[in-house]
Amino acid sequence: MSDHPLHANSVRNPAVSLAHWARAAIGHSWHNGEPDFVGDHGRVVWQTSTMEALLAGIYDGDVTVDELLTHGDFGLGTFNALDGEMVILDGMCYHLRSDGTVTRAMSTDLTPFAVVTTFDPDVSFDITQPITRAGIERLIDGVIPNKNFVVAVRMSGTFSRVDTRTVGRQERPYPPLQEATTHEAINSLENVSGTMAGFRTPGFEQGISVAGYHLHFIDKRRTTGGHMLDFALQSGQIVLSYSTDVLLNFPRFGAFLTAQLDRPDIAKAIAATEGSGTPTTATGS
After folding, report:
1. Is 25 inside a domain boundary?
2. CATH code of residue 208
3. 9 near 125, Cβ under 8 Å?
């Protein structure tokens, strides 16, 4: 399987840097001689709690889905008691459970960890030849103008393979995330159409969020999905939305207030829970 698409087609060709910068100049303002990709006020990624808190087993939140959707129409996360995975697309919040079911989340559902933004496309390109996860990540890394921005990634199409994991609801006393995910079964989907949604986050945010690529998958019929472990895209479209601002909301009660959240092995722990096997980082430019 090739690691590079045969064509990366759009009105903004990511293979040609001059065209990319020209697009930025046309579509956005300039500041001090440099393109201002997201305008004077930037775009905000809004996040509740931290990945390190989730690793520590802090699974109770104080943010409802209703409130979460006031901060963005695209994103991912989990639900209280670590009850499955969250995918937000086009302002709709989906609850993906470990029994394989998918439902629309209730407005009153609570989340202990979620990341959302208002998705406003900056770049889009078509994939017309099979490409692996590693190839996709290299392609996106070569397109983005600043590796220190948070990039929302929406990837839709036909996947020859998607490996997902969906964590099950936990009971008190909550175990650490690494323990909670140890025995979760991997669900392998083949020749499935759907959407991969999530973020590419710079390395300096490790522990606050997941450095590198953090993606959740939901199929086109909204009947299955989960936390992405690996995939291969047959054909489809990738759309990127850049953000310059991160607003972090801390839980206001419970275990978060007294937790010791400065573990030295944070990258290794996140890699284990994310299923990558090795620490994942997204380096700056």
Report:
1. yes
2. 3.30.1330.80
3. yes
Question: How many Å apart are CA 254 and CA 252, to the nearest integer?
Answer: 7
Give the CA radius of gyration of the chain. Answer: 18
* Helical spans, DSSP H, in the chain: 17-27, 51-55, 65-68, 133-143, 177-180, 266-274
φ, ψ for residue 196, nearest 5 deg: -100, 125
Count of helices and strands (H, E) across the chain: 6, 17
8: in domain: no
pTM for the model stands at: 0.84
Q: Among candidates 253, 229, 273, 233, which has minimal Cα distance to 110?
A: 253
Domain that holds residue 269: 17-274
Q: How far is CA 153 from CA 184, 218, 261, in A?
A: 25, 14, 28
Q: Which two tokens stand for residue 10?
A: 């759009």
Residue of 260, 227, 237 whose CA lies nearest to 113: 227
Encoded tokens for 53? 């808190």
User: pLDDT means per 10 residues in the chain (285 residues)?
Assistant: 43 36 36 50 90 96 96 98 97 95 97 98 96 97 93 98 96 95 89 98 96 98 97 98 95 92 89 64 44
226's tokens: 């989960």
In the DSSP assignment, the letter for residue 241 is E
* Residue 4 forms part of a structural domain: no
Q: Which amino acid is at 200?
A: R
**Number of domains comprising the chain:** 1
* Residue 7 covered by a domain: no
Reduced to 3 states (helix: H, G, I; strand: E, B; else coil), residue 42 is coil
Angle at 136 between CA 105 and CA 132, to 5 degrees: 95
